[in-house]
Amino acid sequence: MSIARIGILTAGGDCPGLNAVVRAATKHALKNNIEVFGFKNGFDGLVKNQYIILDDKIVSGILTRGGTILGTSNLANPFNYTLPPLASPEEPKDLSSMVLHTLKTNRIDALVAIGGDGTLSMASKFIDMGVKIIGVPKTIDNDLSATDFTFGFDSALAVASEAVDRIHTTAESHHRVMIVETMGRYAGWIALRSCIAGGGDICLIPEIPYNINVVAKAIEDRQRKGKTFSIIVAAEGAVDESGKMAVQKKVEGSTDPIRLGGISGIIAAQIEKMLNVECRVVVLGHLQRGGTPTAFDRWLATRFGAKAVDLILKEDFGNMVALRGTDIVSVPIKEAVSKLKKVDPNGQEVKTALEVGTSFGSPTLG
Ligand code: F6P
Fold first, then answer.
1. d(CA 166, CA 170)
2. Which of 14, 109, 141, 297 is catalytic?
3. 190: Cβ below 6 Å to ligand 1?
4. CA-to-CA distance for 48 and 103, rounded, in angstroms?
5. 123, 168, 182, 205: least CB-packed within 10 angstroms?
């Protein structure tokens, strides 16, 4: 079978480097005389048959641009569609047949699906329905086990590390405890690495449950050494010993059904009650997903996009591109979404952090 036309979509949360993938995949496809349809707003564009035709002019100059020129959605799940006017949260619908119809009507031979574990799980279901798909792993969370890195993580890490750097100024001048809250969902990569890179004092991550008394003691230990300020880097998914997470909201039908956030406020109130110290918070939120991708993310995204089209040319479908060392390889999408990549509490990175005096607020570590 020769490939004449492919579709590309970006789904899930936006992330620096999406445009770089779209550009690389489009350029490589066009060089091989393959037409490229860019479906709008993730799988919503396939449900509603909304697309733009990607040509050399459209993808020119987007390598360094954050966000996605195609738009995205983490709500448009065709298997459990909840968006009006086609459905509602009260009456979700399975609209996967409309996706198949769009692909057939437009004679799309293969699809490049760029997204995180939610998007790739949907892609996996469409593969079972006969759609030829190549997955490209994106997420600032870096929580996909099949790839050394997802693109977007390095850019988010740069923002978080700079925030930890900058917060030192006020913490030190005002003798405060400052908490920087990072994203990352159920994985602590952004928090751990920005804490190491930015010189944070206490690091709270989902993989290592904290005890607030141990956190308070770490602050007091620093005070006894004459250090009148402390910086806590807290992942949004950090859990205390009872396993409780700070959930902002539940979102029906989303690929991300639980919206996390607010852990820093909870900890700040507890610390202020326990110690005679002013405790303030900075929630980085979507700043971590905004702006231009770092050089590493542009490099990775470009290599991922080109490799995705390579796999299409070889008709090696059902795979996700992945980074191993400096090589781009392919792994079955099903395998890629089967396991989240989490920080190993007994691993080298945590050990390094402990060795430079970082506390994880854990009664058993450190
Ligand atoms: O998965 C990326 C991510 O930014 C997570 O770190 C965060 O929990 C979530 O998405 C936030 O999603 P939304 O933009 O829908 O609030």
1. 8
2. 141
3. no
4. 11
5. 168
Helix axes 117-128, 96-105, angle to 10 degrees: 70
d(CA 160, CA 202): 15
Q: Residue 60: which pLDDT band, with cuts at 50, 70 and 90?
A: very high
Question: Is the CB–ligand 1 distance for residue 222 below 6 Å?
Answer: no
Is 183 close to ligand 1, i.e. is its CB under 6 Å away? yes
| CA distances, 256 to each of 154, 268, 362 (Å) | 21, 26, 28
CATH assignment, 5-151+291-336? 3.40.50.450
d(CA 290, CA 155): 9
Q: Is the pTM of the predicted complex or chain greater than 0.90?
A: yes
- Ligand 1 nearest atom to the CA of residue 288, by list position: 4
Sequence ranges of the domains in the chain: 5-151+291-336, 155-290+344-355
Atom of ligand 1 nearest to the CA of 289: 4
**Rounded CA separation 11/44 (Å):** 9
Q: How far is the CA of 126 from the centre of ligand 1 (A)?
A: 24
The residue-averaged pLDDT of 174-194 equals: 98
What are the tens digits of pLDDT across the range 266-305? 999 999 999 999 999 999 999 999 999 999 999 999 999 9
Quick one: tokens of 95?
């609209």
* Phi, psi dihedral angles at 223 (to 5 degrees): -60, -40
CATH domain 155-290+344-355 topology: Rossmann fold (3.40.50)
